[in-house]
Amino acid sequence: MTFSSLIFLFAFFPISLLLYYLVPQKAKNTALVVISLLFYAWGMPKYMVLLAFSIFFNYFAGLGIARSKAADKRHAALTYMVIATVVNLLLLGFFKYDGFLIENINHLFHLSLTYTPLPLPIGISFYTFQALSYLFDIYMEKAPVQENFINFAVYVSFFPKITSGPIVQYHDMVDQLTHRSCDLVKFGEGAKLFIIGLGKKVLLADGLNTTFTAVSALPANGISTLTAWVGCITYTLVIYFDFSGYSDMAIGLAKMFGFDFAKNFDYPYISESVTEYWRRWHISLGRWFRDYVYIPLGGNRNGLAKNIRNIIIVWLLTGLWHGAAWNFIFWGGFYGALLLLEKFVLKDFLPKIPAAVKHIFTMLMVMIGWVFFFSPTLPSGLLWVGRMFGIGAPAAADAAGRYYLTQSLALIIIGAFGATPAAARIGRGISAMARGKYRLALRIVSCCLILVLSMAYMVNSTYSTFLYFKF
Hints:
By secondary structure, this protein is mainly α. The chain folds into 2 domains: 6-180, no CATH class; 186-460, no CATH class. Helix content is 71%, strand content 0%. It has 20 helices and no strands. It has helices at 6-22, 28-43, 48-70, 74-96, 98-109, 124-139, 149-157, 159-162, 170-173, 184-216, 225-256, 274-280, 283-294, 304-322, 326-345, 355-374, 378-388, 399-418, 421-433, 437-460.
């Protein structure tokens, strides 16, 4: 079940909302746990045991860390921390990286080890990182231990964020587990954000994904330069509207249940450097790696060589977090190299370059990066990038390229415009011209229009899950 499914919109969500607001205040977190576990079980019931284990194990590990620290047993606290971290990473690795590891061992040592691929548990990368955030925050004393098991279960399993984030750090959510409220204004803001996210996903991402799916099914060694660019551009927009749409929906849902989560996207495609881009894209993941990997490794405090080492480690891990394949590791290393280049080589030169040139170069790098992201293998990604620049392409343009460009051009233009703050500014400008009750009516009508169009598209189209579900 996804946020953009009819059963969620017309059954699960309204029933859950009704249940949450009907139960007494003391029972609201219990209701959220039940709702969240049902939501997760709907998609992957056989992995409920894994989620339950994560909740129980990390709850008691956190207690062990906190009580050891309270008794001034630092070695015991560290032991709890290390064991808990290893167990979490082993579980994640077993389900996500076992095949990748065995394939590379076979290739390296000329072996024939066999394995049975297991379906990746939905959300395991996200809820594991949130559990680790809890343990790290307790160990570093950034937040108090959670003595209440139900409250901790809400933190790990809260359904808006369990499948694809945002990755909410424990110290940002701990107070909201016991003290939160939702008035009519806040509820309306959440509903608006949810509907905007739904529109992003259904009207833009799914629409553009039709073209990308068709283009990506073509043999890469036979596509023209134009076709390669159409595939790259459509995917660049698809993944933005798909993932930012999900994040908007998750944050909006959380708001309707009284929680406030920070935004996960901030118009990344207007960036003038790769550094700026990663301050705007998947913000919660970047913060997680900064707070729990980069800074503990020493950040930029221990000299140039160690700073470079820390950046490389963070970005290789970022690539590996996204997927168990060499193309994802290359993708992470690609961004790590670009960030090092900007930070240490071009730092004095970049301010002198016109903003438009910097923006074009940044988007070119981002789009090249997305090719390796969507390609099934590293060689196929290199082949696709080569075709984009005419290397080995049978033609600059062909009938397929012209057809797919014509088919998707309107959505590409709308998407490119919608990925900038200009669309939001125009909306605010129109809203500002209306006064009083007319302003509220305009907002309601706009949201209703997006909702109706989205539902009409959902009824007449095939099911399309969110891209980040596979991570």
